[in-house]
Amino acid sequence: MAEVPLYEISRDPAGSPPRRFFFFDEELPEAAYGVRRVYGPVSKHPARLAGNPAGVNTATFAGSIVKLAGGGYRLYATSYLSAERTMEITAWESERGLDWKPVRMPGSQASRLGKNVVRIKGLKDRLLSYQPQVFQLGPKNWVMYAWNRFENNHLSYLRAVSADGLDWRADTATEPVFYHPSKFGLGEWVSGVPLREIKNLAITKAEALECMRLASNDSVYLYHHPETGCYDGYAVWLHPAIPDRRVEVDNASSVLRLIQRRWSRDGRHWSDPELVISPDERDPWDLQFYYLAVQWHRDWRIGSLGRYRVEDGQQTMDLELCFSRDGRKWERPMRAGFIPRPPESSGEIDTLMVYGPNTWLDEGKEWLCLYTGHPTRHNERVEKRTGLLGARFRKDRLAGLAADRAGGGFLSEPFILAGPELRVDAAVRGWLRAELCDAFGRKLPGFHLMDCRPLTGDREAHRLTWKKGNPGDHIYRALRLRFEFCDAEIYNFSDESDYGRRE
User: How far is CA 100 from the centre of its chain?
Assistant: First the structure.
């Protein structure tokens, strides 16, 4: 099937190009000296699930948060009793995203997981259901994708529909959207056994090939694009372990976890997989990737990448930010966790694991990430209680460039000035100044560094001014900025038109 161009899927909803210029590329800017990569500041806040039964863990990992038309949010989470391997989808609602109350489900029955368990009608012999991806496509048109395990131990990713997001039934297309590699014995295939050598296969080789084409480990994140009606999704692709990256203490030592992407026009038929993120020479030898959730912001896709350190003594999970224009090529400038984990000795809930939801909550100038924290290593057999926390951070302060007291500088990428003023989003304890150049980096008269009035302070819209030069005289010309700064962080820059239109 022909794919809708990705610029149509990810373009700015307002239909006009954003005028904010970020530092999301892996390579440092041209002529950079004395600068380093930094994340923006993050504050953490406790979240509460009222009425969650004792002993039940509830996780937002690969869950969904849907903004309701009447206000507030609905959370579709995974609740489980680890000792019994019992997992079900539960529904919660909140006005602002930190305090959640259970939603009593139609025809709910007594369950140790609570009265807010989501039941999917029409699935015989289903044992458990988890990791829901939910969309409201219209007033009475809800769609859910979730992993379901059946009595024959087959694990399949199925689709369900609902008129209200509460009363669900299996879709008429009951064929799985994706297959877990354990299905029909294909787990041998991901461990490196060629298909022709797999014995006692329960299906034909042609059917096995189709299952392999649609194979995915769990941790699937799907997204619907209202403008095109299309979907894309990110999941784990299992690669046979190679000797210099194999870690025997891992719970799946025979495989390595990479990130795949797929695309669909109708949400039923999906494209072939394409690998979009794999460990490389800049990563630790044992690093694997456990999930990729995606947030759209201006003309960027912001990825929450599950950064999984596998070696013995770690077995930890961080949320690393990565950035993409098209969903295929991802920039990873930080290669470190974004949400700080406290020391293990602190006793906090998120000391070892951080798992992200499918989306962040929009709070105006800030995002709220309702994440799951876990104080247990991935391969530990003793299950400790998980918890939910909210991480808040400025929308436009995800990543930046910092200079210490010794000072630093760099030359920006070329841009076309579309407003009469230039602004800088920066936290400046020392000083910052800039030089306006043509597209080839040559200084423009009246805009030298020595002509710039130094900036100081923490502001999202510092105004760059020069003693004689007026940037408005160069509107709609191709320009560059040469920054020089000391004891400061720069997060982005823009022309005045951006601030006037959007803030």
Answer: 22
